[in-house]
Amino acid sequence: MSDIKILAIESSCDETAAAVVEGGRKVLSNVIYSQIDLHTLYGGVVPEIASRKHIEKINPVIETALSEAGCTLSDIDAIAVTYGPGLVGPLLVGVAEAKAIAFATGLPLIGVHHIKGHICANYIEHEDLKPPFISLVVSGGHTHLVRVADYCTYEVIGRTRDDAAGEAFDKVARAIGLGYPGGPKIDEAAKKGNSEAIVFPKAKVEGSAYDFSFSGIKSAVLNYINHAEMKGETVDPCDLAASFQKAVVEVLTEHAVMAIRQFGLHEIALAGGVASNTALRASMTDACAREGVRFYCPSPIYCTDNAAMIGVAAYHEYEKGNFADFTLNAEPAVKIDQQS
């Protein structure tokens, strides 16, 4: 089945993406239309605007993906699409498109969980990575610690109880005037700041050692800014960004190392949009070196939302015969251990 070609579609948020993936690891094309510039005007993603832009761009993006792969639909073996989690409007655009193509061609339809896709992005560039391993998933909407038992079996051992790490990055960036998108802005500002300048709290969730909580540190940053303004003190945004980022990165790294130790595994894979954060990558690299475990992380292009990762995840569902029917629908809050 190494020559199986899957046309994959991703539209869970503000990227319209399509890709052709062969054999579960070889990316023949990976086309992404980003709406970042459009949503920057509003300081964040506006779902209705995102949905309209997906409708406008999805056919050209798919056509480009097929063209760049040197394929037509007659060369494709299955159609894959992200069905959740994400924003319901954008998800519906992708799901409707995939169902229409599958119906018209008679090709199998595969619904892919967005977070599984992020984890599977690691397989693209790391041929030696195979389950079981631990994955730390850090994105704008999710923060998960996942034990990947095999290619289609995932166990969430820890998750955020409130804000996702990426969400906290966005909110803090907005509060200190860095703008949107917050993750890259914080990362760049932190490089110019002193991470020891301010000590922010690192929350622990009582009774759930692997769970995360980032609302407290977000509130601590806002309180710090407010107190400084009341006293007429100047806040250095770079120092604040560096100190905030350090606290978040340390929590993420500590939890990942704890999971590796407890489960006795020897590989850990980073995934999600925040996986491109340079401080997190460096921290995880150092921690894994100390623990004597192998560390994997996708290139930045595969950290952001993309369709190649959806095609990789879909390949393993294809091997298992896990196909969807035409009742497949957008599920904006679907859990990773739920099957489409």
Write a brief caption for the model.
This protein has helices spanning 36-40, 47-69, 88-105, 114-120, 122-125, 165-175, 182-190, 215-231, 237-263, 278-291, 300-303, 308-320, and strands at residues 5-10, 15-22, 26-34, 78-84, 109-113, 133-138, 143-150, 153-159, 267-271, 294-296.
**Total count of domains:** 2
Strand order of the largest sheet: 3-2-1-4-5
Query: Strand portion, in percent?
Result: 15-25%
Give the fraction of residues assigned to helices.
40-55%
Number of helices: 12
Tell me the CATH topology of the largest domain: Nucleotidyltransferase, domain 5
The CATH superfamily of the largest domain turns out to be: ATPase, nucleotide binding domain
Helix/strand order: EEEHHEHEHHEEEHHHHEHEHH
Low-confidence stretches: none
- Please count the beta strands (DSSP E, at least 2 residues each): 10
Largest sheet: 5 strands, mixed
Characterization of the model:
By secondary structure, the protein is α/β, with parallel strands linked by helices. It has two domains: 5-121 and 306-320, ATPase, nucleotide binding domain (Nucleotidyltransferase, domain 5); 131-301, ATPase, nucleotide binding domain (Nucleotidyltransferase, domain 5, 2-Layer Sandwich). It contains twelve helices and ten strands. The protein has helices at 36-40, 47-69, 88-105, 114-120, 122-125, 165-175, 182-190, 215-231, 237-263, 278-291, 300-303, 308-320, and strands at residues 5-10, 15-22, 26-34, 78-84, 109-113, 133-138, 143-150, 153-159, 267-271, 294-296. The longest helix has 27 residues, at 237-263. The protein is globular. The two termini are 23 Å apart.
